[in-house]
Amino acid sequence: MIRQLLTYRDGCTDPHRNLATEAYLTETVPEDTCILYLWQNRHTVVIGRNQNAWRECRTTLLEQEGGVLARRLSGGGAVYHDMGNLNFTFSLPTADYDLRRQQEVLVAACRRLGIPAECSGRNDILTGGRKFSGNSFYHHGGRSFHNGTLLIDVDMEKLGRYLAPSQGKLESKGVASVRSRVVNLSQIQPGLTVSHMEEALWAAFSEVYGLPTRRLEPSQLDQAALERHYQCFHSYDWVYGQAMPCTFSCGERFPWGELTLELAVEGGVCRHAAVWTDAMDESFAQPLARGLEGCPFRVEDLCLRVEEAPACREVAADLCALLRRQDI
């Protein structure tokens, strides 16, 4: 049961440092405590933990124009961040994790600002049928976080310029482009600023949980631990993922998300595997990649490995059907 509410905001706009702070706050959140961390990134594309950077983002263009690519711990899809976007993270013990209650904080904050909002599925928040907040989730070692974006006054031209969603994703959403299905809240409530939303969130956090809030100060954080997290999030290997020669690739969009499977095959055996997905529950991706390494490159052998992986139980039927449709 949550008995203490903490808030944190340090003004940093470096995405790798902000992701390091998110990881640190989640790793160290005390029992019976929920931390609401608000943060902003300047000119950044953030991709989900198991996404292929080159397929989701026009990386060269982003870098040429002074942008930064970052990879988060949680699943989900790619998002563009600038100073017209406010990010939030709820960090708390997994035993106290309550997605609907956390999302109610966001809806209540919008209500305070005169904006009607509603949750759509697990990971989107809408106003007037258009998305202004996408959410993602992470659970590890008895601690969890729920994070997301709030589009206040984001540069929509750049949002569409740097993100490169697959046609399958667009078709599954029933829209012609990324920009056609998102909306800035400043369009709904002219004059709205990031500061207005920030104040509304602090108040709604206290209102929904029925507890006072206490502010965490940067001096209270372990700077050495933060630096260790930063070095990970800033590293090329984390941001771009392991590069490998791919001799086989297949993919499809399923109701639970899009997936691409890449295999490096040598001597009839899968020597290396990569699984890229924007699924919200992406916990199967890394176990699946490990499980396919060393597997004979035959459909039934591949399917057997998929079916034997406990983490793949919910998606095994779809993955095996995909593999059986390939010309192997």
Write up what this structure looks like.
With 328 residues, the chain is of the alpha+beta class. The protein has 2 domains: 4-240, BirA Bifunctional Protein, domain 2 (2-Layer Sandwich); 248-324, 2-Layer Sandwich (Enolase-like, domain 1). Helix content is 35%, strand content 27%. The strands form 3 sheets. The chain has an 8-stranded mixed sheet with strand order 7-8-9-10-6-2-1-11, sandwiched between helices. It is globular, with a radius of gyration of 20 Å. The model is unreliable at 170-180 (pLDDT under 50). Pfam families: Lip_prot_lig_C, LplA-B_cat. This is lipoate--protein ligase. GO terms for molecular function: ATP binding; lipoate-protein ligase activity; lipoyltransferase activity. Keywords: ATP-binding, Ligase, Nucleotide-binding. It catalyses: L-lysyl-[lipoyl-carrier protein] + (R)-lipoate + ATP = N(6)-[(R)-lipoyl]-L-lysyl-[lipoyl-carrier protein] + AMP + diphosphate + H(+).
